[in-house]
Amino acid sequence: TRKALGEAHSKLILVGEHAVVYGKPAIAIPFPLKVRSIVEESSGNIMFESAVYTGPIDSMPMRMKGISECIKETLHYLGKPLEGLRIRIDSAIPLGRGLGSSAAVAVALVRSLFSFCGQEPSQRELFSFVQIAETHAHGKPSGIDMAAVSSECPIWFEREKEPIPVKTNGPLYIVASDTGRIGDTRIAVENVRKRYLLEPEKVEKSLEKIGKIVDEAKNALLNGDMYLLGQLLNRNQEELISLGVSDDGLNRLIERARNAGALGAKLTGGGLGGCMIALADSLESARIISSELMKSGAFRSWYFSSQDDSLY
Ligand code: MEV
């Protein structure tokens, strides 16, 4: 039987989450946890298989409506009938942890459907179909997740603009730790919006500061100045706290990481649960920070070098 594969990886937002929704820039990097989508010829209705749901795409639960819409629109565009396929999603990316799992699943899915038809989507085609799934999952996402999970290098992202590769001088040693609590990005984005309505000057000031931090971070990356980059992560975290998207669990891990030798640390992604990241000055230091975070109650912790595909 005919078979095709599509892949994507997860992502970490280095600096700029939330402010990116309001048109500020953000920088995201690839995170080497992967998802694969395998499409096979079969008979009858389109069947979907994943850890979350297995069955015909027409009976998907409400929260997966975006995925079924995305499949239908993509097949329609490719001129394929809505039958005779089996789609299997095989993902190593935990859900709802700010790692871009929903965007990564959709990117892998669209790539696999195109590949099944002997095609490769352009970036524009890819984003337009992934956007269907993301809009259902997140409301009004900035688009940074889908840009980041489909890019092989760090990106500079601004809403409605083409993502730009970011140059880095030397590897980044990053620790990512999961609080173990699902962070609902949709709710976090909505909370910031409500706060904006209540205290527009204060929120505007935070967003401005974050925009400047992201700009400085781009230069720190270019110059390989990891000490400055660490400080920028810390300053970004202060603004995320003032936007109301951090929480005690995240703050505790961030504090622990700093005490264990991190150059800087902050939440990553939507916040209110989910993951935090720390910047280390070596792989060995990243290993120590990671093990400290596990001792301090992190649910999971990874570390890696940005110039290497291995994840520890
Ligand atoms: C989620 O990874 C990043 C947010 O800025 C939301 C978005 O950009 O759509 C919190």
TrEMBL record:
Pathway field of the UniProt record reads: Isoprenoid biosynthesis; isopentenyl diphosphate biosynthesis via mevalonate pathway; isopentenyl diphosphate from (R)-mevalonate: step 1/3
Stated EC number for the protein is 2.7.1.36
Q: What is the lineage of its organism?
A: Bacteria, Bacillati, Bacillota, Clostridia, Eubacteriales
Recite the UniProt keywords alphabetically: ATP-binding, Cytoplasm, Kinase, Lipid biosynthesis, Lipid metabolism, Magnesium, Nucleotide-binding, Transferase
The protein in question is named mevalonate kinase
Question: Which SUPFAM superfamilies does the record cross-reference, listed alphabetically?
Answer: GHMP Kinase, C-terminal domain, Ribosomal protein S5 domain 2-like
Q: What class of enzyme is it?
A: transferase
Q: Where in the cell is it found?
A: Cytoplasm
Family named by the database record: Belongs to the GHMP kinase family. Mevalonate kinase subfamily.
Q: Which residues form the GHMP kinase C-terminal domain?
A: 220-293
* Keyword Kinase in record: yes
Residue ranges of the GHMP kinase N-terminal domain?
A: 69-149
The processes (GO biological process) annotated in the record are: isopentenyl diphosphate biosynthetic process, mevalonate pathway
Top-rank taxon, per record: Bacteria
Any one cellular component term from GO for this entry? cytosol
Q: Care to name a GO molecular-function term for this sequence?
A: ATP binding
UniProt cross-references to InterPro entries, sorted A to Z: GHMP_kinase_C_dom, GHMP_kinase_C_sf, GHMP_kinase_N_dom, GHMP_knse_ATP-bd_CS, Mev_gal_kin, Ribosomal_Su5_D2-typ_SF, Ribsml_uS5_D2-typ_fold_subgr
